[in-house]
Write a structure and sequence with these properties.
single chain; 9 helices; five-stranded parallel sheet
């Protein structure tokens, strides 16, 4: 190790940004060199992407320039794509060079998990980035415009695979947006079909059953059709095949059914579970005490021995602990064990509707929708203070 340790953070998602910001505060001058690598020069708010994807909010509300979030006199930022991780050499290969490290933070984010469904990667869209959101947004309008030219009714059918949080939140926004677009394109809104397909026996798997029932009732009133307990068997260029061979012709298929870890982690030779590393209690990769894993790249077990869902709030908390533990390692101090503190869970259902659990309290309807806004505003405040809240926050 050199006289000044080199810390490299791969990825500027929730975990990566919080790691970088905490290191800014923790480290003294020249105590370490910190470098943040990200393929874009902005951080995007993944939990907000369903809104610009459907067209109910601006894309600009879902992203923040990294230059506004880190002090580049303390954290060097490199806009680049990671090509490979060389653990034995303690080196990261980028598309425009390479970096040596003494401490490495893996926060590269996840990739769609298609569970081997034929055609899903090739034919479905995913809500995973600003660029993918732009494509979905434009494709919705494209299908309506094409329908006015060829009268193909399949263009007015929108299939969403997966009824977890992302799928439910997206169909809620889509159900709000499509009637507006129908007026714009002179289309009867009753001709629109929004179909949410979920292989599990319930929507929002693992969520409170009472709130799941409420959420489904709200979305059904908005025009969403659910096919629960029915797997997608194949995704075609013009629709999906579900269940025992039923084909649903569709103008667009959006897949929200699963996320796995980044392929670069497995390629580096690290032991993975669905592309994720089972981190130790200090968020380190087993057998590699100088490699830390956070967010979608990590699997962290709850006290019952089951993995926590890879949510934004756990990634944020991991980022904070990760930074503290790296600082402790540099100083020869004892690390702290990561303990997840669940602040609650909120799923939006479109305009003015949501469901939430905070502690043991169940909240639904307008009050839960306001809670969702508070959660979003709180995150903006954490990463950017009041100026970012005023610039990006949604208050009404």
């Amino acid at each position: 190790m050199g006289s000044i340790p080199k810390i490299v953070i791969l990825g500027a998602g929730y975990g990566g940004i919080l790691t970088a910001q905490r290191l800014q505060k923790e480290l003294k001058h020249r105590e370490a060199e910190v470098t943040l690598v990200n393929r874009h020069d902005y951080h995007y708010i993944t939990t907000h992407l369903h809104m610009p994807a459907a067209g109910t909010d601006s894309i600009e509300h879902a992203r923040v320039p990294i230059s506004r979030l880190v002090d580049e006199s303390k954290v060097a930022f490199i806009k680049s794509t990671v090509q490979a991780i060389k653990l034995e050499e303690k080196k990261v290969i980028l598309d425009n060079g390479s970096l040596d490290y003494d401490y490495l933070v893996l926060g590269l984010g996840g990739e769609p998990e298609t569970f081997g469904i034929p055609g899903m990667l090739e034919n479905a869209m995913t809500i995973r980035s600003i660029n993918s959101v732009r494509l979905i947004r434009e494709h919705i309008s494209y299908q309506l415009a094409m329908y006015k030219n060829d009268n193909n009714p399949a263009r007015l059918t929108f299939v969403v695979g997966g009824a977890g949080f992302t799928g439910i939140e997206f169909v809620g926004e889509l159900a709000d947006r499509l009637p507006q677009l129908c007026r714009e394109y002179d289309i009867n809104p009753h001709d629109i079909k929004i179909i949410n397909v979920e292989a599990a026996p319930t929507a929002l798997p693992g969520f409170d059953p009472e709130l799941v029932e409420y959420a489904m009732d709200v979305l059904k009133r908005k025009g969403v059709t659910f096919r629960i307990g029915v797997p997608i068997k194949e995704c075609l260029p013009d629709g999906v095949v579900i269940g025992e061979g039923e084909k649903i012709p569709a103008g667009m298929v959006v897949w929200t059914g699963g996320i796995r870890g980044n392929h670069l982690i497995e390629a580096a030779g690290l032991e993975v579970m669905r592309g994720r590393i089972k981190a130790d209690e200090y968020l380190r990769a087993p057998g590699h005490d100088h490699v830390y894993v956070i967010g979608d790249n990590s699997v962290f077990m709850n006290p019952e021995g089951r993995p926590y869902p890879p949510t934004a709030q756990i990634a944020m908390q991991q980022g904070d602990t990760c930074a503290r533990n790296i600082a402790a390692a540099i100083r020869g101090q004892e690390p702290q064990k990561f303990k997840f503190s669940n602040k609650g869970t909120v799923a939006s259902l479109g305009r003015g509707e949501a469901v939430a659990i905070v502690g043991r309290r169940k909240i639904k309807g307008w009050l839960a929708a306001q809670l969702k806004k508070i959660v979003d505003i709180r995150y903006l405040f954490i990463i950017g203070g009041i100026p970012l809240v005023l610039k990006k926050g949604r208050f009404f």
